[in-house]
Design brief:
By secondary structure, the protein is mainly alpha-helical. Helix content is 65%, strand content 5%.
Length: 316
Amino acid sequence: MSDTSDPDSEEYDSDEMEDGVGVAATVIAPTDVKATIEELRRKQLSDAQQVASVELAAKKARAAAAEAAAARFEAASRAAAELARNPPPIVQGSLPPPLQLYKDKLLGILRSLKDPMKNTPPLQEQCINTLRSICQNAIANPSDPKFRKIKCLNKTIASKVSNCLYGEDFLVQCGFLRMVELNEGFFVCGAETGAVAGTTDLASANFTTFNGKISKKIEVAVQCPVAIVRRLEIAEDVLGKASALAVEKTERWDREKHREKNEVQAQKDRAKEAIKDDKERRRVAEERKRYAATAEAAAAAAAAAAKTKNEEVPDS
């Protein structure tokens, strides 16, 4: 019996492996071990070099970001210092909150007034220009009450302001309240008594509201209050900016209307021309039919005459 501990034994290789008891052993040569170790060392060195390269790149990126941040900080510092040495001018025309709220209300009414589904562009332009003229007259003549007391049935007011939706609303928002004097309606700005002056008892005032039936004479302040003048100036500024846009809108509307009118006229002209051509075709067709019928009748008559002549000739 051979020694099973000898790996070179043929009996170990054959009998043990066939029985499934033994395990085949792999013998690695010393040179292979050395090569494997060298390969592992090279791989470790390569990995270390890659890690060092990544760390170097990250370090450079952090340095670049730090330089960029320092440059931005320096630029911001210079800008702040320059702004401190040369501050910008204060913006003029800024409004306090109450007047800004008043202006926002005017702009809201004006947006509704400029809705093309409610008012045509020409009517918008007329209304805006009329309202602007009212404000300009009141501003230019603060000591003349006649420019702040306007009849509601005034032809210009009725046709250009009252006829435009939201036109009267804008006028009322400007400070021209609806009032009645001896059953006649007025738009009044700067009345001395009643609701404008803070009186709550309308029976003791010398006028009633617009819905009243009878009222006494409306007293308008000779000198327009500064607060009302300021509001009129704001309204005039809003209307002035809207006026130029209204003119452009009206011009576009007129061009579109003319284009549509011309298109309709062109369609009518084409229809008339088509009818004329159709009549000419019918006339030519009728003439051809008459000519063909005449020719056919003549041919038939000629044929009948020839036949009759042939029948009258005696046989030789």
